[in-house]
Design a protein that fits this description.
Number of strands: 3
Number of helices: 2
Largest sheet: 3 strands, mixed
CATH architecture of the domain at 1-42: 3-Layer(aba) Sandwich
CATH class of the domain at 1-42: Alpha Beta
Structural class: alpha+beta
Shape: rod-shaped
Radius of gyration: 31 Å
């Protein structure tokens, strides 16, 4: 495990974080030779599920989906 003094970490924080993320090796931050913090890479996120078909099985059709939404006797356009 790499070690870095806190003063140097403060000056190069973003570079150290990028290095940890890229190499996946933790870095120990020390102050006067004593460990203060440990910078570890994030855990690997689970692979994203394919969004196609993600909602399969969640839709339930009730009734006739191709017919009119209301009865014909309720239509004003057909009344004369």
């Amino acid at each position: 495990m790499d070690q870095i003094a806190i003063s140097k970490f403060k000056a190069t924080c973003l570079a150290v974080l990028e290095r940890v993320a890229k190499t996946r090796k933790p870095v120990l931050v020390t102050r006067f030779g004593r460990p203060v913090a440990e910078i570890v890479p994030p855990s690997q996120p689970p692979p994203a599920a394919d969004w196609l078909g993600a909602m399969a099985g969640t839709l339930h059709i009730h009734g006739d989906i191709t017919g009119p939404a209301s009865q014909e006797r309720d239509w004003k356009a057909l009344k004369r």
